[in-house]
Amino acid sequence: MGGLEPIIIEEQLYITLWYLGENDTIQKIADRFGVGEATVTQCRNKILKIVLKNLKKKFVVWPTHEEMLEEENLFAARNGFPDIVGALDGTRIPISKPRDHPQTYVNRKGFHSIQLQAICRHDMRFSHLYVGYPGSVHDARVLRNLYLWDVGLQRCNMQHHVLADGAYPLRRWLLTPFRNNGHLTLREKKYNKYHSSIRVAIERAFGNLKGRFRRLLNLQTHSVKTACKVIMACCVLHNIYIIQGDVDLADFLDDYEEPDEILHNHLIQERVYLKEIELQMLSCEITKVLV
């Protein structure tokens, strides 16, 4: 392993999960686990490589025809909006100032970031992912540059649809809300209301993702390549946890930005407990790959 201290795979997983789940520095993580800083980085890189090479293609997949019919029914159960199989949106992940072309990564809010664009199912599982465009690039431009732009209709079996907000262009397979010009009819307002209540699935998915993997709240790396790997791996793990029936604590955790000492200790205990559950889940999947 090029100098990596001999550590069992479970320990490497735990180190990586801690790295992804917290905003601790590499030095602090190394102190917590009693290893060198280089070991933390090498453990992270090894696990990320396994996740992206072996687990991404298994757990991030476009729904089959049968699954689309199921998604259509589950989305429609919310308010009757028919033929929907996903919700699309983009979010920007803060990163440190990149070494190359840093200005292109500055988004409209003024910080360096990388664009994550995704489509999710009714249960917040990602069915399509793209990571890598600089934060200054508009959501619609990202979509137009993706393969999905040309094959979206075929992917939706010529009859289903994905919902997106007004930042995206209207397509036969991609439905956006009516622009509010102050003269919307009652029917158009009702459409927008139902549209919004379905589209919230992708907003909740991003909230869940960032609530669990708090590294994504401020990904302190100057390497765009490393940042993309971390973001994509977090999305894969997000899907694994949902498939395994893990609980959603993102809303609970986000309610407390400045907890008192007692609550802070409670949250730390909860996160340690979650990591133990996550470790068991992920160990099973990693072991299948390594055997």
Major sheet strand order:
3-2-1-4-5
Percent helix, as a range, is: 40-55%
Q: Give the low-pLDDT segments.
A: 247-259
> Using only CA atoms, what is the Rg?
20 Å
Largest sheet: 5 strands, mixed
- Find the structural class using helix and strand composition: alpha/beta
Order of helices and strands: HHHHEEEHHEEHHHH
Count up the domains: 2
User: Mean pLDDT, nearest integer?
Assistant: 88
Distance between the termini: 18 Å
Globular, elongated, flat, extended or rod-shaped: what is the shape? globular
> How much strand content do the residues show?
5-15%
How many alpha or pi helices? Answer: 10
> Count of DSSP E strands?
5
Supply database-style keywords.
five-stranded mixed β-sheet; 291 residues; 2 domains; alpha/beta
Question: Can you walk through the features of this model?
Answer:
With 291 residues, this protein is α/β, with parallel strands linked by helices. The protein has two domains: 9-58 and 256-290, no CATH class; 60-232. It contains ten helices and five strands, in the order ααααβββααββαααα. A five-stranded mixed β-sheet has the order 3-2-1-4-5. Helix 1 (9-21) packs across helix 3 and helix 1 (9-21) crosses helix 10. The chain is globular.
